């Protein structure tokens, strides 16, 4: 009879297990299908008619920039800049996320100890059973009943579908993306400091130019006053020359304010409070563009940190889809425990009476109301498509930036040459107009207009030189230089 009952029980177990597997298969067979979008990483073969075999973006920033003062500023910024330090902490956060994901697919093991006291009511099912149990007087169960336990337990989700491993790989890709993000911050930081430094040198030269013009205009004012005393000029001319001097003097303080703001901008990037920026003002006019080579557009994929960051984000997004898809499938969990339990501490070491152990496995799969899993899956797919577009946009933007800066260098070089000739011509015209005015062969308005045009042209020349140096910085940034 007992054997027959055991056989019936085994048949029921097999039946239940079979039904469970059928339900699990039904639950996993209706996984939504998504079409993966493939990123287009193709770029034109060249920027212009020539193909450079050398890429200036691969140079170290210490070799690209020759000014020792600028090098010192960049070196200080790479140590103290707050934005860069914040990015370094983001890298640490991403690294810790890898440890979290790695720990999820390894077995969890812990130890447990407990102590308690249990008194059940006599008129309960458990209490009634205890009351009717025939226990000898010397072995009577204590009441209330203490409970002491010490043991170890373990649990493990078997990663059948690679869900946990893919989650870890995704975390690794995002960690590497934060590293590239840090490199991109370094590239931008170096470029911003260099541009601000060259702007500061340009402002210094403009300030010197204004001071020189104030002296020249003061001398012209004295001459006009003398001419008025000799009845060769009038009060109107004196006032017009005096107004021009005052206008130039006001321009001096405007430039000085811009110098202060630019210095403080550099100090902020260096992570320090306002202080004078050391620099050599005299080198500005001697600055020149060395041979700059753009290399091939395909090199941007390896040189630009933002492109590599977008590529790694795309890889992580693809893995996230696999993780989300695996949630439709059954998951297998295994749990086990072993330890000792007794109502008296002295009995804990008596085996096998106090020994307890357990092992169990569970197979779980979603069957009904899978909307949350579907929504997560759809979101993962949408984010993957976003990552594809972001990757393609980043590549396109990088190419456009390089093309723009190459064009800027070409056109600003020509502009600077023409501006230099314009300045020479206007400086000569200032001398001629002053001579003609002294000999009463030119009107004072001609002198004023000529001086104003000469000052404006020299300002424009300095601005053109600054834009040319900024183009040198920006092409280095666009090529992905500075981080390596």
TrEMBL record:
<dbReference type="Pfam" id="PF02321">
    <property type="entry name" value="OEP"/>
</dbReference>
<keyword id="KW-0564">Palmitate</keyword>
<dbReference type="InterPro" id="IPR003423">
    <property type="entry name" value="OMP_efflux"/>
</dbReference>
<dbReference type="InterPro" id="IPR010131">
    <property type="entry name" value="MdtP/NodT-like"/>
</dbReference>
<feature type="coiled-coil region">
    <location>
        <begin position="74"/>
        <end position="101"/>
    </location>
</feature>
<feature type="coiled-coil region">
    <location>
        <begin position="445"/>
        <end position="472"/>
    </location>
</feature>
<protein>
    <submittedName>
        <fullName>TolC family protein</fullName>
    </submittedName>
</protein>
<keyword id="KW-0472">Membrane</keyword>
<keyword id="KW-0175">Coiled coil</keyword>
<comment type="similarity">
    <text>Belongs to the outer membrane factor (OMF) (TC 1.B.17) family.</text>
</comment>
<keyword id="KW-0449">Lipoprotein</keyword>
<keyword id="KW-0812">Transmembrane</keyword>
<keyword id="KW-1134">Transmembrane beta strand</keyword>
């Amino acid at each position: 009879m007992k054997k027959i009952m055991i056989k019936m029980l085994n048949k029921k177990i097999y039946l239940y297990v079979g039904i469970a597997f059928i339900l699990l298969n039904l639950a996993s067979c209706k996984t939504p299908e998504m079409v993966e979008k493939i990123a287009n990483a193709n770029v034109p073969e060249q920027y212009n008619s020539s193909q450079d075999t050398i890429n200036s973006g691969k140079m170290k920033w210490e070799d690209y920039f020759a000014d020792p003062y600028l090098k010192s500023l960049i070196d200080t910024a790479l140590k103290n800049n707050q934005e860069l330090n914040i990015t370094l902490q983001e890298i640490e956060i991403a690294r810790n996320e890898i440890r979290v994901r790695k720990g999820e697919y390894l077995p969890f093991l812990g130890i447990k100890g407990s102590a308690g006291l249990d008194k059940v009511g006599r008129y309960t099912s458990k209490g009634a059973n205890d009351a009717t149990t025939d226990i000898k007087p010397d072995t009577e169960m204590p009441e209330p009943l203490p409970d002491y336990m010490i043991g170890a337990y373990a649990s493990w989700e078997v990663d059948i579908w690679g869900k946990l491993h893919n989650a870890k790989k995704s975390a690794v890709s995002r960690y590497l993306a934060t590293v590239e993000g840090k490199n991109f911050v370094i590239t931008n930081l170096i470029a911003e400091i260099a541009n601000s430094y060259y702007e500061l040198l340009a402002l210094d030269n403009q300030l010197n130019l204004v001071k020189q013009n104030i002296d020249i205009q003061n001398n012209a004012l004295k001459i006009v006053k003398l001419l008025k005393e000799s009845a060769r000029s009038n009060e109107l001319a004196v006032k017009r020359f005096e107004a021009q001097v005052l206008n130039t003097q006001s321009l001096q303080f405007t430039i000085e304010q811009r110098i202060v703001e630019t210095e403080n901008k550099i100090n902020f990037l260096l992570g320090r409070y306002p202080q004078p920026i050391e620099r050599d003002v005299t080198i500005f006019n001697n600055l020149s563009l060395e041979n700059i080579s753009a290399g091939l557009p395909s090199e941007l994929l390896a040189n630009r940190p933002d492109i590599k960051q977008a590529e790694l984000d795309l890889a992580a997004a693809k893995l996230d889809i696999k993780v989300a898809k695996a949630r439709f499938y059954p998951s297998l969990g295994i749990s086990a425990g072993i330890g000792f339990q007794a109502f008296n501490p002295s009995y804990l070491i008596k085996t096998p009476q106090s020994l307890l152990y357990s092992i169990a496995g569970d197979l779980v799969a979603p069957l009904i109301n899978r909307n949350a899993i579907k929504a997560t899956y759809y979101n993962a797919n949408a984010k993957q498509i976003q990552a594809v577009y972001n990757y393609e946009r980043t590549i396109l933007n990088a190419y456009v930036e390089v093309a723009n800066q190459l064009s800027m260098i070409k056109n600003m070089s020509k502009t600077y040459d023409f501006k230099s000739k314009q300045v020479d011509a206007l400086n000569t015209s200032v001398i001629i107009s002053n001579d003609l005015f002294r000999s009463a062969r030119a009107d004072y308005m001609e002198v004023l207009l000529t001086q104003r045009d000469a000052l404006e042209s020299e300002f424009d020349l300095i601005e053109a030189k600054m834009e040319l140096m900024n183009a040198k910085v920006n092409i280095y940034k666009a090529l992905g230089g500075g981080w390596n």
